[in-house]
TrEMBL record:
<feature type="domain" description="ABC transporter">
    <location>
        <begin position="45"/>
        <end position="276"/>
    </location>
</feature>
<keyword id="KW-0547">Nucleotide-binding</keyword>
<dbReference type="GO" id="GO:0005315">
    <property type="term" value="F:phosphate transmembrane transporter activity"/>
</dbReference>
<dbReference type="GO" id="GO:0016887">
    <property type="term" value="F:ATP hydrolysis activity"/>
</dbReference>
<dbReference type="GO" id="GO:0005524">
    <property type="term" value="F:ATP binding"/>
</dbReference>
<dbReference type="InterPro" id="IPR027417">
    <property type="entry name" value="P-loop_NTPase"/>
</dbReference>
<dbReference type="InterPro" id="IPR017871">
    <property type="entry name" value="ABC_transporter-like_CS"/>
</dbReference>
<keyword id="KW-0067">ATP-binding</keyword>
<comment type="similarity">
    <text>Belongs to the ABC transporter superfamily. ABCI family.</text>
</comment>
<dbReference type="InterPro" id="IPR005670">
    <property type="entry name" value="PstB-like"/>
</dbReference>
<dbReference type="InterPro" id="IPR003593">
    <property type="entry name" value="AAA+_ATPase"/>
</dbReference>
<dbReference type="GO" id="GO:0055085">
    <property type="term" value="P:transmembrane transport"/>
</dbReference>
<protein>
    <recommendedName>
        <fullName>ABC transporter domain-containing protein</fullName>
    </recommendedName>
</protein>
<dbReference type="GO" id="GO:0035435">
    <property type="term" value="P:phosphate ion transmembrane transport"/>
</dbReference>
<dbReference type="Pfam" id="PF00005">
    <property type="entry name" value="ABC_tran"/>
</dbReference>
<dbReference type="InterPro" id="IPR003439">
    <property type="entry name" value="ABC_transporter-like_ATP-bd"/>
</dbReference>
<dbReference type="GO" id="GO:0010044">
    <property type="term" value="P:response to aluminum ion"/>
</dbReference>
Amino acid sequence: MRRENELAEWVVRSEVDIETGGEDESREHLLSIPATEEKVTHAKISIQGLDRFSDEGVRILMSVSLQIGAGQIVGIIGPSGSGKSTILRAINRLWEPPSGTIFVDGEDITKQSVVSVRRRCGMLFQTPTLFDGTVAENIRYGPSLAGEKLTDKRVEELLKAADLDPTFGSKSVIGLSVGQAQRVALARTLANEPEILLLDEPTSALDPVSTKHIEESVLDLNRNRGLTVVFVSHSLEQVRRLADVVCLVANGEVLEVLKPSDLANATHPVVREYMAAAS
Ligand SMILES: Nc1ncnc2c1ncn2[C@@H]1O[C@H](COP(=O)(O)OP(=O)(O)OP(=O)(O)O)[C@@H](O)[C@H]1O
């Protein structure tokens, strides 16, 4: 039901459209992210004309423009090598986007410290990387860099938020299943109290049960704490389960932005081909 209430639309045009004044309909990429919920109040993440070139001069991203509402869950899908992870990593400054292309709450992320950007925008990868030690030590690590020591109670809360048993903290990370390790990685990310979660194929290495745990945590964090979530996935089913809006990327371009229920109505030929192959 929460996906039904459309309050507003942010309309974003690619730079091509701006240059042509939108007169050439064949080049029109009208990208609308429907603000699907009452909780959406403003654009949390604004990407404006983001380009990336490889060292060899090959264009990886082509003038990507997107606005993501506060509290939305946005799924990014598209063929391998299309630039999905590159978009996600730019928001976290794992590569340095040009200044004036990515804003969080209206602030240019390149004008802030990398540490503060990464605290605000927590990221989870396909495969969790934990350091040897206990689960609690891993969870405490991020805040400890800022001189903060998390209490046992806080560690337990974080474990619960990641759908893990609160007693898990004393366990060694050696011997955890990949699914458990991914949930510890989520708890570790949450320890920094991010406002945004960036998830790069977070369940592609997990079995269906572990996938369900992660998905439930993400939905809970979004619903109850208002976290804005941007995730990359190759699973249309996952996108349908989680996303408020879906962003379809191919060849470094955002081609369409749709509600999951409208995926079958995608019109761009490249997107239709991808959808047919992925269904
Ligand atoms: N640092 C880099 N230097 C050169 N090329 C890069 C770099 N990072 C990514 N690329 C290239 O950019 C393109 C987009 O990569 P990216 O990982 O963003 O795609 P993706 O859509 O996430 O793919 P997948 O679904 O396979 O994970 C690919 O062709 C990749 O080889």
